[in-house]
Design a protein that fits this description.
binds flavin mononucleotide, five-stranded mixed beta sheet, Alpha-Beta Plaits
Length: 136
């Protein structure tokens, strides 16, 4: 398995119906390509983890990078894992977060952005934090 986590900035004109469309497409396409993951929607940002074979993750990520509904996409980490960790989520969505959760998620943006080599403990805590934001 291969995982990729990125953060991006929403465009100013992003509307709720954009999110509905993204989620619909993500769930449909990801099921077809064996991609699982989580998408965290913040007031001004996205954080997403994609998991699958390296080829499928890169294919999907390239499509996502071309999407004009967000910009300034920064990859936080890529790694090979032994097993699937996001089982059951074609694309779990975390939106309408409480302020305390938004603050937690902003920690990710502020502390993990642009770093290249995380220690194992940082990788694990990043993933746990993302998972804790998704209730499904
Ligand atoms: C923040 C964000 C996350 C996205 N996540 C996914 C995803 O996980 N899977 C996916 O197929 N498309 C995702 N998309 C949508 C793609 O950019 C693209 O619109 C979609 O794959 C096109 O699907 P189609 O070729 O079936 O029309 C995402 C878009 C954004 C802005």
């Amino acid at each position: 398995m291969y995982q990729l986590i990125y953060v991006s900035d929403k465009i100013a004109t992003f509307k709720p119906s954009d999110m509905d469309e993204i989620l619909y497409k993500a769930q449909k396409n990801n099921a077809k390509h064996g991609i699982t993951g989580l998408l965290v929607e913040l007031p001004e940002h996205f954080i997403q983890i994609l998991e699958g074979t390296q080829g499928n993750v890169e294919f999907t990520f390239n499509l996502i990078c071309e999407d004009t509904r967000h910009k300034n996409i920064r990859v936080l980490l890529t790694e090979k894992t032994r097993a699937r960790e996001m089982e059951g989520w074609d694309m779990g969505l975390s939106s309408d977060l409480e302020q305390s959760q938004i603050d937690d998620a902003l920690l990710i943006l502020n502390n993990f952005s642009e770093k290249q080599n995380f220690s194992d403990i940082h990788r694990q805590s990043l993933k746990l934090l993302l998972k804790s934001l998704c209730h499904e």
